[in-house]
Design a protein that fits this description.
- The structure is a homodimer.
- By secondary structure, chain A is an alpha+beta fold.
- At the A-B interface, strand 5, helix 3 and helix 5 of A face strand 5, helix 3 and helix 5 of B.
- The structure holds a DNA duplex.
DNA sequence: CGAGGCCTTGACCGCGGTCAATGCCCGTGG
DNA sequence: CCACGGGCATTGACCGCGGTCAAGGCCTCG
């Protein structure tokens, strides 16, 4: 149950068995069914999740238009990050796109772990760096690229998601409408 | 020379005089003239800067088109962050828009400070959180808002920059051409 | 006074949006 | 087993925002 988490973490920091023994009990196993919500906008995101299996989309609504910020699958940490970091009510939603199994860590537990094992500050700093770098890439692609380029980048970088994520959600990730994505796909398949 | 830095830091963590005595010598004073570059693309960003006075733009070039990621002024930390975090060559540039005075901290010194004073992990984690939250806001505004809305948001949030940053650079920050920004301003002033 | 930067304005264009019609897949019930 | 209905993808007609190119006005500085 904790294997994947420990393997994942080992890429960032190293911890003794004793330290793991103290840390792991803070993680609680959670199962959730396809299309159920883990977090809804308006709630404050009190937990961060490590995904053992399954798939999620994190998205928000603005004037009735959905935008997906991220698709999260096995062996990643995920949450509605802005809300989790600020402990303010979330404008984002987190919804299961498949039946999923996760380990949940409460915000207060994380603060406790920071205190007891300062090396976790380093771990989460590194995760935050990656989140930052991902966002920076995303902005760059929005400013400098057309929707068609963004889509072909998406295919290249996320072939595993292509099959699992419905097209309409990919469209909202790219910042365009499902109609436009359909046209783009039509264009691409014409030109082989 | 270190007053502003210490006041800024006190908002995040508290340090004893002894700790400050160990940390401050790692910061080196630097002066730079208007329109000179602190970092050019292709170089690896080895330092992060605390700005005592002055103004900078951080921008990159793609297919001959400039995009400004950020304007940094007094009492902030700034650098070409992606390069600094990854210690890979930068695709971003950092240029002084005014004569400026800064405190520079080398990447290796930062790692040393992390080791000697783990509370700095927490400090930088918090700075990274803010950087992340800023980027998240920026993406949201690109996806959900028109150029005109982004501009009026910019005016509201950065009145102090309006006078100091040339219009063409504001345009590249908004992700539009100087020509379009000029049109938008024309529109706004017609409708008072 | 002339030169170069920057901002403005006009004419025109193309990407992606909206609205609506049609097609396709699939689950459910008669 | 087939008929129907709902959800999603596709396609067409049309539109508007912001881009490009080019011309003209205004500053500053030598």
């Amino acid at each position: 149950m904790y294997d994947q988490l420990q393997i994942f973490t080992a890429d960032y920091i190293s911890l003794s068995s004793a330290e793991w023994g103290d840390i792991l009990p803070y993680f609680k196993l959670v199962n959730i069914a396809k299309s159920d919500f883990l977090i809804r906008e308006g709630q404050t995101s009190s937990d961060i999740y490590f995904i053992n299996s399954g798939l999620f989309r994190i998205f928000y609504l603005k004037d009735g238009i959905e935008t997906s910020r991220y698709f999260a699958s096995e062996n990643e940490f995920a949450t509605t990050l802005t809300s989790f970091l600020t402990q303010q009510p979330s404008f984002e939603n987190m919804q299961a796109l498949e039946n999923s199994s996760l380990l949940k860590l409460h915000f207060d537990s994380l603060q406790l772990i920071y205190k007891r094992h300062p090396v976790w500050e380093s771990f989460f700093r590194q995760l935050l760096q990656e989140a930052y770098l991902g966002m920076a890439k995303r902005i760059e692609s929005f400013i400098t690229k057309s929707a068609e380029e963004r889509y072909s980048d998406f295919i290249k970088l996320n072939p595993h998601l292509l099959q699992r994520v419905p097209q309409q959600y990919i469209a909202t990730y790219l910042g365009i409408t499902p109609v436009s994505l359909s046209r783009i796909r039509g264009q691409i398949s014409k030109t082989h």
